Amino acid sequence: MVRLTNVGMKFNLGIEKSFSFKELFIKTFSFKKKKKKTEYFWALKNINLDIKKGEVIGFVGSNGAGKSTLLKVVSGVMKPSTGKVEVNGVISPMIELGAGFDVELTARENIFLNGAVLGYSEKFIKEKYQEIVDFSELHDFLEAPIKNFSSGMIARLAFSIATIVNPEILIVDEILSVGDINFQEKSRKKMQEMIDGGTTVLYVSHALDSVRSICTRAVWLEHGEIKMIGDTNEVCEAYYKQEMKN
Amino acid sequence: MFFVNILNNIKKYSFLTKQLVMRDFKVKYKRSVLGVFWSILYPLLTMAVMAVVFSQMFKFQVEGVNYLVYLLTGLVMFNYFSEASSGAMASVVTNFQLINKVYIPKYIFPLSKTLFVGINFLLTLIPLLLMILFTGSGETKCIINIYYLLLPFAYLCLFMFTLGMGFILSTISIFFRDMFYIYGVITMLWTYLTPIFYDITMLDPWVQGLMKLNPLYNFIDFTRVIILHGTMPSAHSFFMCLALSVPVLLIGMIVFKKNQDKFIYYV
User: Fold this and answer.
1) Measured between beta carbons, which residues in chain A are less than 8 angstroms from residue B91?
2) Residues with Cβ < 8 Å from A207, sequence gap 6 or more?
């Protein structure tokens, strides 16, 4: 379903500085010809991973370990610097909810815009429109511009749009902690439904409890490398122990 | 194969393109009382200002034609170019949030911007039509003629050229942000190097020769020959319009395609 072979992702930390006009000017006219110093940072190194259909994989690791980068590589947002990514199936990315929203537009207009961003067809959204609205429970606010929405309401809307499809591969990055308790429960149920329906899930979370409860396998990333892979409980246990030691 | 790919992509992402165009349209006119009417009023007002400045203060004249229509034919096309190309230039950077989160072909942003300003452009043809119908008298009266059917050709060339420039500019501006400021100056210079309010026969022959390489001059001149003189544009004119638009579009597409994977590290 998803196969990563020797995937590496290199970032150039010096990029930010060397592209301003001032810097260029100074470099061109300065007498001290300094060698351009480039610092590289490997966000991912040598990742080999094979995910089968219907698996629910949890990714754990400290901040900056490369979890989000890995998801972006799988979803096609970033091309890996080395190695190969093979994906079979339709991906629904839930990397950050509401990335395609325009705050000036109303909730109704945003459903169409965001749906288009996620790759749905016009016919599909028209059919599912009512279902999206019902799930989000935002009936009374459809004609209000979403800049007046609370973050919880935006998250509700975004989650409802993103989960209306039955994708073959679902990518989830820290989103189940949105909304009020009622909606959290509702979204957890929805996720479970999709998993039961055979959707492959790549799941990133710092909440080890939720990883334990839904994942069939876990991957522990550290400094861009896979430190441990295997049974969810064992991986979470080991990761938790190390974190507590530091 | 390459073209089949492009066609498939256009079909697949046409809904997204439509949504992005609609978003720009809604956001632009939200909260303004006159809304869409501004698209019609704005060129008329600019034309009025230019007419007062150049024909009244500087006593400018272009012999034997309706000066108001002369101004407006140039203005609507130049305004389209400058607005669409600078909008397209900024489009990738301003939509970075999206590009960083979901996979979307990046060319959609310059394309939807160029199309959106295109809708605006079509609206500005209304005031142009009004001026053609209601101004001028005697021999300067413009008459709607059969050659009007050729106008879309010039507008299509303008669109292709603008889109190509949009691709090139958005690519440059991602790696080199100063481009936003530099391009502002370039556009200003370009306004004066394009015969919007003057006629190129007023210039030295060698400047005229140079001017004829300006794509915008060629597109504008093509429409003026039809609208002001009611004659068929020359074969040379057709050729120049194509030769200055299609290659720019192709170069733009290639430049954009070659660099698009690197965008994400720079925005």
Assistant:
1) none
2) A176, A177
- Judge whether B77 lies within some domain: yes
Whether the Cβ atoms of residue B76 and residue B128 lie closer than 8 Å to each other: yes
pLDDT, tens digit, for every residue of B145-193? 899 999 999 999 999 999 999 999 999 999 888 899 999 999 999 999 9
For B261, the closest chain A residue by CA position comes to A79
- Chain A residues closer than 8 Å to B104 by CB: 117
Number of domains making up chain A:
1
Considering CB atoms only, which of A77, A79, A109 is closest to B102?
Answer: A77
Number of domains in chain B: 1
**Is residue A88 within 8 Å of A114, Cβ to Cβ?**
no
State the residue range of the domain holding B39: 24-266
> What is each CA distance from B260 to A72, B33, B184, in whole angstroms?
16, 39, 24
CA distance A237 to chain B (A): 31
Whether B18 maps to a domain, the answer reads no
Residue B7 reports pLDDT greater than 80: no
- Strand (E) or helix (H) holding A196: helix A181-196
Per-residue pLDDT at B92:
92
Element (H, E) at B8: helix B2-29
Mutate to test the interface with A, among B12, B13, B15, B263 (most CBs of A within 10 A): B15
